[in-house]
What does this fold into?
Amino acid sequence: MLNHAVLYAVMLAVPTITLIRTYGSNRDFAPFGFTIFAAQEPPIGWMVNPGGLLHGEPGWLLSILIAGHIVMAGAHESIWRDGTLARMRGRRRAAN
It folds into this structure.
């Protein structure tokens, strides 16, 4: 349960940090050609600097948590055979 809480917290934190950093930077944010944020001139330092420092490590932590999640789902399916993947897909395991 704690693992999922950390996973969701980091999944929210990484994009939030990035959007704050992007909003304060001197580059437009225009995914798919639609401008969301215009460039700030001059850049807003309190948004850009912490975002630059805090974006990389949580991103790597998120990658590690996702990989661990995949490994544990595989362990539940292949080692313990407890029907976790079936429950994740919305199916119940057949009664023995």
